[in-house]
């Protein structure tokens, strides 16, 4: 025993140090003789009577003590049944020490019960503990958990029985006798003074012993092990196979009855040796926690993809009929004060389980949304979950995270985002019909969609695309069209009649207050109308401007002579946005419808005079026949049919296909004021067409009171037939410049025709074509590569092209090179068409067009107002430029940099720009 | 009463703004060499203009800034024009006020910003010495061109110095 222990023991008495071993009879302790007093009478001077009695008592007590302790002392090996026989001497000694005068007085002397308790402790510490400690020294492996616990329980129970047996047999009866007799004797312990003093002593002894047991086990490790054991039992009972601990369940599942029996036995045993208590209850708490989680991720609660039902009822019935009985059983084993379960507790467990289930579902909500509506079951689960406190916040934040991580990044195409957004709208409508959640989670998506340039285009063109005629590859995931939107469009729509002032409609008997968690921007949408959500993405004006562009483009390209879909779309949008704003679109629609009528009228007036006046038919006959008449032997490309759409100041033209030899012309007459800026490339159309145009013009002026037409050749389309030496091919929906270009390969009347029947066609160079057609070189090249792609032209060198009058025989090298060239050119042409095909001017074109004015503005501003930052310049431009300045800081910066290169302005650092002196 | 007056005022200023915006557009699309003008802020009633001195005058190669303020009934009343750049000139006083008939009684609604600025530019080369605001300048103009030029240069400041 080291020094420090001794020091500590001197202040805080340690029982094991002061514990006495059974004393031999021969050495009675007579006490000390005080200095100055005679030997044998230490207390004589003070209280002779008491002293004499005390001395006598001390001796007697010592003898009795020695006898009793010897009798009660524990053998080293508890399994030895051998015990000292209880004889009369022992009886007397015990009775003397426990109930007669020998009882310890005033706590000065050690009581026999205390001594025995200590004896047990020492025995435990010396003989049992090392074994237990070895058992618990290392971390308990999961597969050994059961064994360790059971072994511990067995040892402890054995020891406890051994300790309790002498106590119960020898000490307790005496105490009980004493208690049942008079209790007048004042004692130290108040509880002993009561009638059940014996029971109290018993309780105290057990408690002390069990405290020693509990103390010798590592508490944390013990409760973890126990918790695991309970969890394991639970999993086995409920056949949960996917477990948090990663333990693979046995191939042949144990019988649940056995498992339950084993658990019950263990728990009862632990409770008997005092290891039940709080720590076991806590361990059980942990176990149920894990068990709930495991159950929720188990196969029982998988999303119901087939019958699309919520699985919440199953969860609830499990809580009620599976989980509660288990808890009751465990609590009964642990002998908790309250062993029955209150209905409120069941309810709170259900809520807890629902909360976990909901969180687990919400974690995958994005996947469920994408797979809508197969995921209806999961969505219904989440719907139940929303009743739980704080569920909505969790859902919003979690889903927003998922969306920003998985959807709102540059890698996702706009079409994909739109499709997902539509799925979100649909699924959240199921989730919460009031739409508050939808409004919240959709906000970042809407903001993001607004930033994408092509959103409006995709929406509107998808709306204009029919489901039936365009099925197939057009709706691929990275395509420009959203199948979802198109199918939405195909749904019948009722007149929703959303009043703008719904809140002020006092007669609305179905009025309901807004949901309490609604944000200020929340707007009630009574219907699950996907299109409404899409159309309200932008400010109304912005959207209508975009709509005008796309709608115009679409009308010009529309093949349907009745414009059925276009009319429907316009009506649809009018219902949602109000018809006052869509005037321009209505005018555009009326223009194209009216054009059809005018075309009809003009054609009849053209045809009617044909019979009487010679001039007109002459004209018309002459043109198409000229080439053929002159060169009947060398077939020329000829285009008997063409339909051209033109755009005019007020009107335009489209054309239909007449008899094969005579070109006909149909015009679209557009009111230029209402249409967006359209392509206006100028070039010479083939002579027969321009003749027709003039004719049309004069007829039109006659009908329409001298209103002038301005032809917009670039918007036209044509259908032609080319006749070669060995073949003839039809082409439809060509652009006007492609048609004009191939027409230019026809031999001119004054040109000597040396293309003989050897198959050599007419050859033209790019420069020639440019001069002849007055066409933009870019368009020429585009058209040339188009025709090369169609194997009509062959490039002799980089800017000389010739007609392929005779397709070379297959297998000749020429064919191969032609094919290669054709394939390459076709690709090129496709690319170029993609960029030039739009009829409406793009923003970049607009910027280029008005650059001079903008530059003048910037210069004027900087000159007069001094140096300015870019932001202010852009702001001023927006306010000052008549007709609006639809660009932002970026474009202004671009212009400024351009000016800087020209040396007109100078950057003063940061965003600030100024005029360069001396410029 | 006050309400209707306000309403009329608003309507009037709206038409002025429209008119001025159109003028701005014209100036920007058809700029006149040596003359620029631009509004100070979005309500368009105050502008800053810049003119350069005509060649072969004492004001050659000098740049002058002016402020123009338009009344709500513009163009039926002339704008108030002041030189912000200090200038030595017979018809401009030392606080920049200008004596020019078209800005006073000879104003007509057919004038616009460009014509006003052109008049001012030509006034630099051809001062009206019969009714001077600056007597000394009027006198020196004919008597001592060298001294006149020196005084012009002495008084002139570059626009950057003005801003500073």
Automatic annotation (TrEMBL), chain A:
UniProt KW keywords: Cell cycle, Cell division, Mitosis, Signal, Ubl conjugation pathway
Region of interest: Disordered: 23-54, 609-663
An annotated GO cellular component: anaphase-promoting complex
Annotated SUPFAM superfamilies: Cullin homology domain (SSF75632), Winged helix' DNA-binding domain (SSF46785)
MF-aspect GO terms: ubiquitin protein ligase binding
Keyword check for Protein biosynthesis: no
GO BP, sorted A to Z: cell division; metaphase/anaphase transition of mitotic cell cycle; protein K11-linked ubiquitination; ubiquitin-dependent protein catabolic process
Domain Cullin family profile: residue ranges: 491-788
Family the UniProt entry places it in: Belongs to the cullin family.
Protein name: Anaphase-promoting complex subunit 2
Lineage: Eukaryota, Fungi, Dikarya, Ascomycota, Pezizomycotina
From TrEMBL, chain B:
A single GO molecular function term of this UniProt record: ATP binding
Superkingdom of source: Eukaryota
Keyword Ligase: no
Residue ranges of every copy of the UBC core domain listed in the record: 15-161
Pfam families: UQ_con
Coiled-coil segments on the chain, per record: none
Database matches in SMART domains: UBCc (SM00212)
Active site residues per record: 99
Tagged with keyword Repeat: no
Xref: InterPro entries: Ub_conjugating_enzyme, UBC, UBQ-conjugating_AS, UBQ-conjugating_enzyme/RWD
CDD domains: UBCc_UBE2C
Keywords: ATP-binding, Nucleotide-binding, Transferase, Ubl conjugation pathway
Record family assignment: Belongs to the ubiquitin-conjugating enzyme family.
Protein name: Ubiquitin-conjugating enzyme E2 2
Organism phylogeny: Eukaryota, Fungi, Dikarya, Ascomycota, Pezizomycotina
């Amino acid at each position: 025993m080291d020094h420090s222990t001794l020091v500590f023991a001197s202040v805080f008495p340690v029982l094991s140090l002061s514990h006495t071993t059974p004393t031999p009879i021969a050495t009675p302790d007579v006490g000390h003789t005080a200095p100055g007093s005679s030997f044998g009478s230490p207390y004589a001077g003070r209280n002779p009577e008491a002293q004499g009695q005390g001395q006598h008592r001390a001796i007697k007590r010592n003898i009795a003590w020695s006898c009793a302790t010897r009798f009660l002392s524990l053998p080293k090996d508890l399994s030895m049944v051998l015990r000292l026989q209880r004889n009369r001497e022992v009886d007397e000694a015990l009775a003397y020490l426990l109930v007669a005068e020998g009882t310890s007085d005033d706590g000065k002397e050690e009581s026999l019960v205390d001594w025995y308790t200590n004896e047990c402790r020492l025995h435990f510490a010396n003989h049992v503990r090392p074994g237990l400690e070895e058992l618990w020294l290392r971390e308990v492996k999961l597969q050994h958990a059961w064994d360790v616990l059971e072994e511990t329980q067995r040892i402890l129970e054995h020891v406890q029985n051994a300790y309790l047996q002498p106590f119960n047999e020898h000490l307790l009866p005496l105490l009980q006798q004493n208690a049942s007799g008079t209790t007048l004797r004042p004692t130290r312990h108040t509880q002993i003074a009561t009638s059940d003093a014996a029971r109290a002593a018993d309780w105290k002894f057990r408690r002390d012993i069990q405290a020693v047991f509990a103390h010798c086990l590592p508490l944390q490790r013990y409760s973890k092990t126990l918790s695991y054991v309970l969890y394991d039992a639970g999993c086995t009972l409920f056949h949960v196979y996917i477990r948090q601990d990663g333990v693979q369940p046995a191939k042949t599942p144990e019988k649940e009855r056995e498992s339950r029996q084993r658990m019950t036995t263990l728990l009862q045993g632990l409770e008997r040796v005092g290891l039940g208590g709080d720590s076991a209850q806590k361990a059980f708490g942990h176990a149920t926690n894990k068990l709930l989680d495991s159950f929720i991720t188990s196969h029982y609660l998988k999303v119901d993809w087939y019958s699309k039902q919520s699985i919440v009822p199953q969860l609830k019935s499990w809580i009620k009929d599976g989980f509660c009985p288990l808890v009751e059983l465990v609590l009964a084993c642990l002998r908790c004060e309250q062993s029955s379960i209150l209905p409120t507790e069941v309810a709170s467990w259900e809520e807890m389980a629902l909360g976990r289930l909901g969180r687990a579902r919400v974690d995958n909500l994005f996947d469920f949304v994408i797979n809508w509506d197969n995921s209806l079951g999961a969505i219904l689960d989440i719907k139940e979950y929303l009743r739980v406190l704080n569920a909505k916040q969790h859902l919003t934040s979690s889903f927003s995270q998922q969306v920003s991580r998985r959807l709102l990044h540059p890698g996702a195409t706009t079409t994909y985002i739109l499709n997902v957004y539509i799925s979100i709208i649909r699924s959240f409508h199921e989730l919460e019909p009031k739409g508050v959640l939808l409004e919240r989670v959709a906000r970042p998506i809407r903001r993001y969609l607004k930033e994408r340039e092509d959103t409006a285009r995709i929406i509107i063109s998808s709306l204009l695309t029919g489901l039936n005629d365009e099925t197939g590859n057009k709706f691929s995931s990275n395509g420009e069209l959203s199948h979802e939107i198109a199918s939405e469009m195909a749904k019948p729509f009722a007149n929703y009649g959303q009043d703008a002032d719904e809140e002020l409609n006092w007669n609305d008997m179905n009025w309901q207050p807004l949901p309490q968690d609604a944000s200020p921007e929340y707007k009630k949408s009574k219907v699950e109308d996907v299109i409404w959500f899409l159309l309200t993405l932008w400010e109304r004006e912005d959207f209508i401007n975009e709509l005008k562009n796309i709608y115009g483009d679409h009308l010009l390209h529309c093949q349907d002579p009745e414009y059925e879909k276009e009319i429907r779309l316009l009506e649809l949008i009018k219902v949602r946005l109000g018809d006052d704003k869509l005037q321009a679109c209505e005018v555009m629609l009326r223009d194209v419808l009216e054009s059809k009528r005018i075309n009809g009228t003009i054609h009849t007036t053209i045809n009617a005079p044909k019979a009487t006046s010679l001039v007109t038919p002459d004209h018309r006959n002459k043109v198409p026949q000229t080439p053929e008449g002159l060169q009947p032997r060398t077939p020329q490309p000829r285009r008997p049919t063409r339909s051209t759409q033109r755009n005019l100041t007020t009107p335009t033209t489209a054309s239909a296909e007449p008899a094969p030899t005579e070109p006909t012309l149909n015009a679209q007459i557009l009111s230029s004021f209402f249409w967006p800026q359209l392509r206006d490339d100028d070039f010479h159309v083939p002579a027969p067409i321009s003749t027709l145009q003039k004719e049309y013009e004069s007829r039109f002026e006659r009908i329409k009171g001298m209103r002038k037409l301005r032809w917009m050749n670039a918007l036209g389309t044509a259908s032609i037939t080319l006749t070669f030496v060995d073949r003839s091919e039809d082409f439809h929906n060509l652009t006007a410049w492609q048609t004009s270009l191939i027409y230019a390969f026809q031999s001119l009347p004054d040109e000597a025709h040396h293309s003989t029947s050897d198959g050599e066609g007419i050859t033209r160079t790019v420069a020639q074509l440019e001069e002849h057609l007055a066409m933009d070189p870019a368009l020429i090249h585009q058209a040339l590569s188009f025709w090369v792609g169609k194997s009509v032209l062959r490039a002799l060198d980089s800017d000389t092209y010739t007609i392929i009058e005779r397709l070379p025989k297959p297998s000749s090298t020429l064919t191969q090179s032609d094919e290669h060239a054709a394939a390459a050119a076709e690709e090129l042409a496709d690319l170029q068409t993609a960029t030039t095909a739009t009829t409406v001017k793009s923003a970049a074109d607009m910027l280029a067009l008005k650059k001079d004015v903008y530059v003048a503005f910037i210069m004027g501003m900087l000159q007069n107002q001094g140096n300015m930052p870019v932001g202010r310049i852009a702001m001023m431009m927006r306010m000052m430029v008549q007709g609006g300045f639809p660009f932002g800081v970026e474009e202004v910066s671009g212009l400024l940099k351009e000016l800087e290169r020209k040396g007109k302005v100078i950057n003063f650092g940061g965003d600030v720009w100024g005029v360069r002196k001396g410029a | 009463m006050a309400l209707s007056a306000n309403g009329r005022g608003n309507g009037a200023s709206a038409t002025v703004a429209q008119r001025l915006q159109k003028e701005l557009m014209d100036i920007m699309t058809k700029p006149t060499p040596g003359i620029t003008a631009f509004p100070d802020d979005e309500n368009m009633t105050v502008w800053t203009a810049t003119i350069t001195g005509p060649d072969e005058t004492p004001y050659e190669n000098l740049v002058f800034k002016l402020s123009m303020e338009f009344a709500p009934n513009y163009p039926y009343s002339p704008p108030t024009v002041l030189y912000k750049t200090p200038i030595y000139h017979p018809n401009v006083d030392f606080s920049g006020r200008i004596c020019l008939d078209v800005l006073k009684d000879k104003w007509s609604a057919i004038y616009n910003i460009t014509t006003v600025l052109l008049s001012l530019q030509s006034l630099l080369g051809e001062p009206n010495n019969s009714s001077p605001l600056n007597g000394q300048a009027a006198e020196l103009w004919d008597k001592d061109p060298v001294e006149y030029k020196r005084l012009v240069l002495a008084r002139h400041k570059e626009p950057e110095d003005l801003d500073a």
